[in-house]
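Sample entry (236 residues):
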Amino acid sequence: MQKVKFEDWGRIEYGAAWDRQEALLKENLEVKASWFGKTEDEKDKTIDTRHHFLLCEHPHVYTLGKSGVMENLLLNDTRLRELDVTFYKTNRGGDITYHGPQQIVGYPILDLEKFYTDLGKYMRGLEEVIIRTIAHWGIQGERLQGATGVWIDADKKGKERKICAMGVRCSRWVTMHGFALNVNTDLNYFGYIVPCGITDKGVTSMQKELGGALDQELVKQELRKNFEAVFEVQLY
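Predicted structure, serialized as tokens:
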């Protein structure tokens, strides 16, 4: 069973969190580079890669993924400043999304070579963590064919709404970035973008689905439990 270091970063500016992720990713990539040309027995005697599972929330920010287009941001710089929202072009997959207060963002930094070298399977695993977590509160999360993330009423045309967005980067099988689960999130901020570049589907939150606010700490506890179960790891 792989051990994964857990950290709750609390509320942190997006750029600062990105820098910290990049530093952890770099550490793992440097370890892998040092293995070049070594036998498996020699690798076992050297420093190893390390896994991390990071939770946080961000001040208001829009982030654009590598496959995104600027036209999906419906605000100019002046309006962004008025709303006190920052903007970043990122190196994750996917299009544009919003992060903000009362949204739980998860950043797993895993060396997938110790699990499986299948990025699609990894994404389905992240989705399963969210599906199990929101099920604790009676919300039925589903997958939507041709899209990532977790959805509500995925099979009901015109009623599909995303409750958790996902976008990752993977370098030499080490992951970064991750998921954003809308808990008590102010959904009005999604109205200033075309979320994930999808024009005909909605966005929701746990609060909206249940009709009342949730305790974020309890949601984090469920996320931790389900992350351990789905990926068969031990958080420490």
